Amino acid sequence: MKKIYINSVGSVSPQKTFDNSDFLEEVVYHDTNVMKVIDPNYKDYIPPAAARRMAKGIKMSTVASRTALNEAGLENVDAIMVGTGLGCIGDSAKFVGDIIDNNEQFLTPTRFIQSSHNTVSGQIALAIGCTGYNFTYVNASVSFESCLIDAILQLRTNEARNMLVGGVDEIADHHVRSHQLIQHIKNEPVAAQKLLESDTKGCITSEGANFFVLSDEKQPTTYAELVAVKTFNTLSKDRLAIVVSDFLSENDMGPEEVDMVILGNNGDVDFDGYYSILSEGMFENTCQLYYKHLSGEFDTAASFAFWLGAKILKSQSIPEAVKLNSIVPDRLKNILLYNQYRGENHTLTLLRQC
């Protein structure tokens, strides 16, 4: 079966990840319940006049995608796929507010045009002149993994050679307030270092953009091999270990061959128990990492874990800030990513050193 390679990465997050030469060497610990990205200098990537009219998600994605393309040495790609849970929700909220404030009169169309979910992929395509396949997946917390599955299928059927794949979500005040009311977001600030000790409902919400160039051809810049991705809309706790074992078996592996597992713990006392099943079960003696104390939680937060796994495999090093236990692996070859959100949309992703 044809191998799929991660040839480059680009990230804008609550950490200083926009600089690919740095790998969490200087970690920023936030003390909040709403975690915003550390903005790069957008003027270096976008003309100031255009940037003023852009939604936050578009600006973050422009930087992350351009970083990935530059590292891969590409001016263009055969296809663009973007996963997002909320799209440019900030402009959506502002447009609705303008309708109310102006009695449905004298409205400019800019915010409406930029409020659709596929605005990000469209803006990237316009910027680089890509006229190929362009698709946006809006599948809640499996939006990014849906892109990966599509990319794998297209690359293995020779539909494309180089594909730009990313996940992006931005913060909107209305979304934060409404989700705090239903206890999906924590009401009190939490120190990032103590996220897993919070013992309260909800998560620390966030935003970010992570983009990757995937190809069926290995390059000098290649980070890792993307072996497999699988998603499950619903999954009971008593079946989780069975499903993970089956996933590994489908890829000719056993749990003992997983050198590292990256878990999506977000400090929600009601749902972090899913991760405990693996961390205290089949992967009890495996190196364990977590990341949402650095990235926060959002629909495409798993794209940050994908970035983290790819960087670890290329650098063959593990940042101290993401270690969940003290186990040191004998090698760094196979990494398993597991994520879920509020007990739904479970995802398994397998990365391998190449």
Automatic annotation (TrEMBL):
Alphabetically ordered keywords of this record: Transferase
Give the GO biological process terms: fatty acid biosynthetic process
Q: Name one GO cellular component term.
A: cytosol
Keyword Nucleotide-binding attributed: no
Question: Which Gene Ontology MF annotations are present?
Answer: 3-oxoacyl-[acyl-carrier-protein] synthase activity
Coiled coil (residue ranges) = none
Source domain of life:
Bacteria
User: Does the keyword Transferase belong to this entry?
Assistant: yes
Domain Beta-ketoacyl synthase-like N-terminal: residue ranges: 45-217
According to UniProt, the name of this protein is 3-oxoacyl-ACP synthase
Q: Which organism is it from?
A: Aggregatimonas sangjinii
